[in-house]
Amino acid sequence: MAKAKKDVKKAGNQAKASKPAKKGAGFGYKILGFLLLILGLMLLPSSTLLMAGMLPTFIAFLTDSDRRKTSAISVGTVNICGVIPFEIQLWEGANTMAQVGQMLRHVETWAVMYGAAVIGSVIYYAVPPVVGGFIALQSAARVAELERKQAQLREAWGDEVSKAPAASGKSAKAA
Amino acid sequence: MSAMANEPVIRISDRYEILSRQRFEACDRPSADVFRARRADQPQTELWAIASGMSPLARADILTRVKALDQPMLLALLDWAIVPWGADERRLALVFDQPPGPQLMKSMDEVRQPMGEEQIVRTLFIPAHAALSELTAANVFHGAIRPTNFYYDPSGRGAAVLGECVSSPPSFLQPAVCETIERAQAEPIGRGPGTVADDLYSLGVTAAIMALGQDPLKSIPIEAMLELKIERGTYAALLGSGRLPGGLTEPLRGLLSDDPRQRWTLDDLGKWLGGRRQNARQVPSARRAQRAIDFGGTEVWNPRSLAAAMSRSIPMAIRLIQSGEIDRWLRRSLGDSACAVRVDAVISMNSASGRVGGTSEERLVARVCMALDPAGPIRYRGRSVMPMGVGGALADAVARGGPTQPLAEIISSQLPLFWYGQQPEEPLDAMSSLKSFDQTRAILERPGYGHGLEGALYELVSWMPCASDMVKRQYVTTPSALLQALESAGGNQGKRPETPIDRHVAGFLIARDRAGGDKMFAALTTAANDGQKHLAMLNILAGIQRRFGPPSLPQLTGWIVGLMKPIIERLHSRKARERVQLAVTATAQKGDLLMLQQLVDDPETIEKDLAAFRNAQNQYARLAYEIGEVTKFALDRAQLEATVGRETAAVVSTGIALLLAAGIVLMTLAK
Fold first, then answer.
1. Per DSSP, what are the bridge partners of residue B29?
2. Which residues, at least 6 apart from B314, have a Cβ–Cβ distance to it below 8 Å?
């Protein structure tokens, strides 16, 4: 429970920290984007298939308002698993644009790639409520445990123990 | 004999037995119960005993000295003790020797055969001279010389034996006629100890009455008798119209002198008894004014009478003082400028102080009365007491539950100091008396337990038993006896008060247990709450038990245990409280106050408990903070899902993807 709490804080802190880093990192991203573009042009059939298959991930990335892009990660990681078999098939075959076209003409290809993306989306929407419920239960148990300890202290020391040390009349008397 | 064998007897020192149901009429007196007594090994009940309570108070301060006297002309005090009397009472029992016969006179109203000169010398003067010599050597004032207190065998030719003087305050039982004018003006309880000169005066009156066969003044009221004595002098007042054997004129003129400086001393009497005749002194009568002063329609001829009259009517006295008539009368009619100067000084001092209202008028009149009659008693707000009788009067007022305020005001207004200042010759006891009054006044004016009126009483009357309602029937004279009396009181749960120390007990203990010190009682006075007050009481009583015993006081300890709840509750730990409560209950059965004190007021236990309590408080506060944080975190479910939930979803997706990717790679490699 405490770890989860720390994570929330950490995420917030990271989000805040990413703002000033954004400008410095902008140039690096441009270089990376340029290199990927060159690589994509060099491996045009593979990159075409990848672009087509990973379209849901791109959409998720663009529509995800979370700075951590948890939606894109959830959809993308599973989505790529649906694209990889066809990429392997392409690399084992002619690895041409014609083969890509032939593959994209099959409904199964789209069904596998986009089905995987759908699974990622399902995970993205289904897991948070489950996690929230679990944490709530865990918190209630923790509160009950802490309250039990407080009750033990009251039992041993009386209600005075619940007062702040300075406000305890009996303590003042004894002192 | 058999009836007597079954009779309840009270033993004293295993030597004497008092038959508490047999009154001894021969020595009966109104102030105390008189009983037959006997030696423990003898059946004859020839002895007698007095069982004395709180009022009137026996002269316990002189018992040791009187018992030590070996004078056959004085009825011997054989022994005394504080003994159980009835079911729930203790009294001071005084055992006296067998008197040689009946009293010279059964009562002061009796008329008997007049005694001749030889008989008076043999019967009265010789034994009384011997007895008074012995008493003077022992520094004891008798204060009970009267015809009804001489015992005499009418069949023989022996001397009369002077009766006891210890069972009541000095001069308390004396008829006014047997007392000097100034002591007779004081109320009987407030006459206080006098001097041998006062005893010799009483002897002179007794001899005069025996010579006449009766008291010649018995038929007139006391005020008129005193007026007569003042106007004509005691000798003339008593013997003016009676026939007196010629040989007695000389000693009676000497003994009945109203001026103590002119009165015969023991030495003078001894010389006369030895055959050395002296010229009879002329007894000057009181100075009489040329004209009387009018006081409320009454003509007054001398300052003594004026003082007595003024003390009876304060408003009239004040009017007389304010009119200036006293000064004119004293200077012009009486020619007593010294008295006029004294009175003027009092009035001037009062005017300078500017005090009005309250009791200032009573104080002014009291001082003017003392200036007019320096030898007379202190007359204040209806009380009339000699300075050394203030203590006795206060003791009696407390014992009877009477008003004590006027007596307390006499002390706080320093009237005894003023009285001593008015005396033409400083009395022998002046310094010690003034020191005592000064200390008493300081105690009287201090508030708090052990001080005030109660503290002053026990300081002033060193033999006063504790007058607390809890123990006053127990005749308590020592701290140890007080604990035992409180032990008895503690057993009566229905009637005992809430706490075992009241103002009387505190005053008694401060005065009788000097080693105990004031600090304990200061703690009792300044206690902020009942708990601290009860703890201070425990400390005081435990200290007394440690020093004086007795070792076991279960009832008193149980009583105090009942008061210890707030003290035990000072401990924060419930277990510690239960543990101490169990130990305290066990201690109550043992009756050890010191152990109880150590249990409930152990600094180490209190310190440890406090430290542990602070720790528990901090622990409780940390738990409360954590509960708050956890609750706050769990309550914001949407935030929780948006953060931890989505991250978890990303992690789950990544995990699944990694598994799928690994499966694909393996399948591809397997082809």
1. B32
2. B361, B362, B365
Q: How far is B611 from chain A (nearest CA, A)?
A: 10
- Would you call B277 helix, strand, or coil by DSSP? coil
Q: How far is CA B409 from CA A39, A41, B360, B366, B371, in A?
A: 119, 123, 11, 12, 19
Which of A127, A131, A150 is opposite residue B624, by nearest beta carbon?
A150
Looking at the partner chain, which of A70, A116, A174 has a beta carbon nearest the beta carbon of B650?
A70
Of B575, B621, B641, the CB nearest to A128: B641
Of B634, B642, B652, the CB nearest to A139: B634
Model confidence band, residue A6 (pLDDT cutoffs 50, 70, 90): low
Distance CA B192, CA A44 (A): 137
Contact residues for B505 (Cβ-Cβ < 8 A; gap 6+): B466, B468, B470, B471, B482, B486
Name which of B506, B402, B399 is nearest B448 in CA terms. Answer: B506
Q: List strand residue ranges (DSSP E) for B261-407, in order.
A: 293-295, 298-300, 378-380, 383-385
Residue B613, token pair as written in the block = 């309590």
Peptide bond before B550: cis, by omega within 30 degrees of 0? Answer: yes
Q: Is B615 on the interface with A (CB under 8 A)?
A: no
Q: Answer whether B574 touches A (CB < 8 Å).
A: yes
The count of CB pairs under 8 A between chains A and B is 173
Interface mutation target, options A1, A75, A157, chain B, most CBs of B under 10 Å:
A157
What pLDDT score was predicted for residue B1? Answer: 40
Nearest alpha carbon to residue B510 among B556, B464, B557: B464
d(CA B361, CA B343): 15
Quick check: helix, strand or coil at residue B11?
Answer: strand
Q: Average pLDDT in the B346-368 region?
A: 81
- pLDDT at B639 > cutoff 70: yes
Average pLDDT over residues A101-117: 93
Residue B262 dihedral angles phi and psi, to the nearest 5°: -90, -15
pLDDT tens-digit map of B419-472: 999 998 887 778 888 999 999 999 999 988 889 999 999 999 999 999 999 999
- Say yes or no: B572 contacts chain A, CB-CB below 8 A: yes
Query: Apex CA B625: angle with CA B620 and CA B630, to 5°?
Result: 125
Q: How confident is the model at residue B43 (pLDDT cuts 50, 70, 90)?
A: confident
* Chain A interface includes B622 (CB < 8 A): no
B17: left (phi over 0), alpha (psi -120 to 50) or beta: beta
Cis geometry, peptide bond prior to residue B8 (ω within 30 degrees of 0): no
* Alpha-carbon gap, residue B396 to B471, rounded angstroms: 16
Task: Report pTM.
Answer: 0.77
pLDDT at B355 over 70: no
For B48, phi and psi rounded to 5 degrees? -145, 160
Q: Are the C-beta atoms of residues B416 and B410 closer than 8 Å to each other?
A: yes
Query: What is the average pLDDT value for chain B, to the nearest integer?
Result: 89
Q: Which residues pair with B520 in a beta bridge?
A: none
Of all helices (H) and strands (E), which one includes residue B652?
Answer: helix B646-670
Structure confidence at residue B242 as a pLDDT band (50, 70, 90): low
B32 φ/ψ angles, rounded to the nearest 5 degrees: -155, 160
Please tell me whether the interface predicted TM-score (ipTM) of this complex is above 0.90.
no
A92 contacts A66 by C-beta, under 8 angstroms: no
User: CA–CA separation, B390 vs B410, rounded Å?
Assistant: 8
